[in-house]
Design brief:
Elements (H helix, E strand, L loop, with lengths): L2 H29 L5 H4 L9 H37 L14 H6 L7 H10 L1
Helix pairs in contact: 1-3
């Protein structure tokens, strides 16, 4: 891999990290929004209907799940940037073969080639 390729992946990872940080920030504020009363314009904090409370709880849990997924992706991106600094980016951590460019373009923070990733998923 050339230095230009490394620089391109570094920029792609930094852009992705910046976007995900913005998403996490937005999702966090959305997950912590007020439910019931004041959020709906009602003076009471009691929801008007129990179904409204259930919907609010579902949306909050769903949003928290999205935040967790994006935080995990941010950790993987940090790891990929470290691998770039160490000069081992683009090599599978399991079999030590080069990861194909098409996989790196689709998932630039991947640590495994397709075969090893498949094995990892099957063992989990």
């Amino acid at each position: 891999m050339t230095q230009a390729n490394y620089d391109g992946y570094r920029q792609q990872l930094q852009d992705l990290r910046k976007r995900l940080r913005g998403d996490v920030s937005h999702l966090t504020s959305e997950a912590l929004h007020e439910t019931g009363g004041q959020a709906s314009g009602n003076l009471s904090n009691t929801p008007i209907h129990m179904a409204d409370l259930g919907t609010d709880n579902f949306e909050q849990e769903f949003t928290l799940g999205l935040i967790q997924n994006e935080e995990e992706a941010l950790e993987e991106i940090a790891g990929a940037l470290d691998r770039l600094d160490q000069g081992v980016f683009g090599r599978c951590e399991e079999c030590h073969k080069d990861i194909p460019k098409t996989r790196l373009q689709a998932l630039p923070y991947t640590r495994y080639c397709v075969d090893c990733a498949r094995k990892q998923q099957q063992s989990s």
